[in-house]
C-alpha cells in the first residue's frame, strides 16, 4: 500500500520530487512509536493484573489478561483497521498504474517521474 500511496502522490503532484523519503520515514517512525506504545500498554496491563516477575505460579487474573491481550485486542484492532480500509481512496481502478495511465510510453513515464 505504501508504494501505491507514493505513486498516487507523484501523479497528483508531478512537479514535486523527492518526497518518497518522507513517506517511508514517517511509516517507520509511526510503526516504531506504535510498537513502543503497544509494549507499554501490555506491560501495564499485566502489572495491573498482578503479574510477578520470576514467580512460576501467577494469579488467574494474569491468565485472563493474557487471553485478552492475545485474542481480543488483536481481533478488535484488525476489525477496526479493515473498517478504516473501506474508506481508503486508492483502489485498483484509481491507483496510478491502473488503466488510466496504461497509455504512457517510456518517455511519458520518465517525464512524469523526473527521470531521464
TrEMBL record:
Q: Name one GO cellular component term.
A: plasma membrane
Keyword terms: Membrane, Transmembrane, Transmembrane helix
Keyword Transmembrane tagged = yes
Q: Which GO terms describe its molecular function?
A: sphingolipid transporter activity; symporter activity
Membrane in keyword set: yes
Biological process (GO), any one: carbohydrate transport
Residues that span the membrane, as ranges: 68-88
What family name appears in the similarity comment?
Belongs to the major facilitator superfamily.
Q: What is this protein called?
A: Major facilitator superfamily domain containing 2B
**Organism of derivation:** Varanus komodoensis
